[in-house]
Amino acid sequence: MRKFLSSAVAATLLCVASGAQAGVTFDAVKKKGFLQCGFAGIPGFSVLDSKGEWTGLDVDMCRAVAAAMFGDASKVKGNVLTAQAKFTALQSGEIDMLSRNTTQTLTRDTTLGLIGVGVNFYDAQGLIVKKAMNVKSVKELDGATICVQPGTTTELNLADYFRSRGLTFKPVLVENYDENFRLLESGRCDAYTNDKSNTAANMRTRLAKPDDWEILTENLSKEPLGPMVRQGDEQWFNVVRWSLNAMLEAEEYGITSKNVDEMLKSTNPNVQRILGVTPGMGKNLGLDDKWAYNIIKQVGNYGESYDRAMGKDSPLKLDRGLNKLWTQGGLMYGWPVR
């Protein structure tokens, strides 16, 4: 009996190991020669620029994976997806990776056949109101009419926050960003709720007089945003996860798109592993040892991406806040490439 059990366990482990190496999505992406990503079309995260090229923090996440896979960050095609369509698109195989400011939750990891890869932006949900209302706290919005996108954690968080405080509100469920802001400006809604970064980005592009509005300081929720992939392909999951970690590790060790070639000469063993000077870090991912070098050279480290998309080098000028490195008082913490 003991021998039989040992054999069964061994067979099970073999199956698990074989499944982990199957790489269904990995192989499909490699075969077609490009990465299909799902985007939101939100300033700072993913927008088309004047040249018709995708830019933004979530776009850079996809470009990083393409750089790791193909040595070419440009091998990305994007689909703009609504909040209600994004999971179906990933489940059906329409896209290979969802990089659409998506909140990582237990339910999404356990009921959709999908899984979160990591966090590339820490956010919080907030409410935007007109300054003339002189509202300083959410409790002053008891009974208010609030615009919110349906089928999102935003809608659920709003209900939870008001209910837990004995407050009431009248929801106006509208999917389209432009329509939400139109209703807000017209007075049809007293407030609009979404992730604070999303709201800050959109108010600059969708409101006629953005300075007439303010985002209340209170946070309605925690919003750890990050990419998602389908479950069942650990190889693909690992490529996406470690592409993000490589960008974070690169920033921590001072490796940038501008100095990466010079950093190849570094004697720091961590830098040597990240850049592939020490061989072996690509093999278990099914990639070339220069996978992280290609990400940093072509896309940059996380800080470079943030500054370009949302921070000091962008029109949004958003403070990094929680998205600073852990060494700078933030939550961004790259896992060791070793």
Topology:
Blueprint: H1 2-22, H2 24-32, E1 35-39, E2 47-48, E3 54-55, H3 57-70, E4 76-80, H4 86-92, E5 97-98, H5 106-111, E6 114-116, E7 121-130, E8 144-148, H6 153-164, E9 169-173, H7 177-186, E10 191-195, H8 196-206, E11 213-215, E12 221-225, E13 228-230, H9 234-252, H10 260-263, H11 269-274, H12 291-298, H13 302-309
Parallel strand pairs: 1-4, 1-5, 8-9, 8-10
Antiparallel strand pairs: 2-3, 6-13, 7-10, 7-11, 7-12
Task: Provide an overview of this structure.
This protein is of the alpha/beta class. The chain has a domain at 122-222: D-Maltodextrin-Binding Protein, domain 2 (3-Layer(aba) Sandwich), CATH 3.40.190. Helix content is 40%, strand content 16%. It has 13 helices and 13 strands. The chain has helices at residues 2-22, 24-32, 57-70, 86-92, 106-111, 153-164, 177-186, 196-206, 234-252, 260-263, 269-274, 291-298, 302-309, and strands at residues 35-39, 47-48, 54-55, 76-80, 97-98, 114-116, 121-130, 144-148, 169-173, 191-195, 213-215, 221-225, 228-230. Helix 6 (153-164) links the parallel strand 8 and strand 9. Helix 3 packs across helix 9 (234-252) and helix 3 packs across helix 12. The relative contact order is 0.15. Pfam families: SBP_bac_3.
- Estimate what percentage of residues fall within beta strands: 15-25%
* Number of H/I helices: 13
- H/E order of the elements? HHEEEHEHEHEEEHEHEHEEEHHHHH
Q: What is the name of the CATH class of the domain at 122-222?
A: Alpha Beta
Distance between the termini: 41 Å
CATH architecture of the domain at 122-222: 3-Layer(aba) Sandwich
Instruction: Give a count of the beta strands, DSSP E runs of length 2 or more.
Output: 13
